[in-house]
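Entry 14: structure prediction run for FG-GAP repeat domain-containing protein. Input pasted below.
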Amino acid sequence: MNVSFHKRKIDDVPYEACAVFDVNNDGHKDIISGEYWYEGPDFRVKHKICDVRAITEYYDDFSDYPLDVDGDGYSDIITGAWWGETLRWRKNPGRSGDEWAVFDIDVIGSIETIRYLDIDGCGVPEIFPNTPGGPQRIYKLICDEQGRGTGRFAKYEISKGPSGHGLGFADITGNGRIDIVLADGWLEHPENPFTDAWTFHPEFSFGLASVPILGYDVNGDGLCDLIVGQAHNYGLDWWEQGRDAQGKRIWTKHEIDATASQYHDLWLVDIDLDGQPELITGKRWRAHNGNDPGADDPIGLYYFKINGGQFEKHVIDYGPAHQASGAGIYFWVEDITGNGYPDIVAPGKDGLYLFENHGLAKE
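Run finished. Output tokens:
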């Protein structure tokens, strides 16, 4: 049986990132995208966050991650993008309803997008910008003695040279530590991620890879494999981790889907509640203002049953832009409606959509 979704257009806004969190602490999850947030539970009341710089078809907002940066009990937003070259946070004004003040964390160069992981187990996620032309960095929120954010961040540089287009997290070695996957290799997580050196292993080359690259044991052999989309070309593949006759680590490419281009953002979520995660992704429409291979193809949103490596594609939405939705650069998967099934919020240059997950459809 397929999962049934109800599609709803929230707004015509052209931002490519979004998030879900309780903005005003009223107990309802809200939707955030670009310059606006939409009040849950019906998302019909719209509030201005702040102005976001526009550049041709783009907006300087390639992630909208919730984090209480200043420890006041309200979730703020971490963001950054290509042109501004600056990692920033937007301060949630709380009950005042004012527009959100914007603070620079660091000027670091062009940011493809940003991902987040609690790399040291402190309970607060660290910030990992993907800056293709620069080294990989980690930004750690500095907290006070009560564990509350102070509005300040510590910066750690863990690689040298360009990190390339692509970033993900995976326990490559199987030792319980999460390693960092880049476009042309992976960084091995040392015992102390902030003081010890990260060893780079140049074992593959993924081109302009998705953000994120996903780590998952696809075939159940106990080794962590990698799921990689082509962010600016056709292709979605999984790379099987194995060993050669001398015991050296090797990677074997397996095709998942070659029919769609611009698989930029990927999620692993149990969308049908069968106890196994599904791969959720879609086409980012006009990722390079229409200059990518397949740019004029129909757009779509999909989930894949993994099935031990025999990936089975299910269409959530498909068709021409402005009729169907893709996945943007930073979409969101979370149960918003409260029925237990994860819903999908899909931003993009053609609008902001909510796909309400109604569970398995009766056939």
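Notes: The two ends are 7 Å apart (CA to CA). Will compare against the previous run tomorrow.
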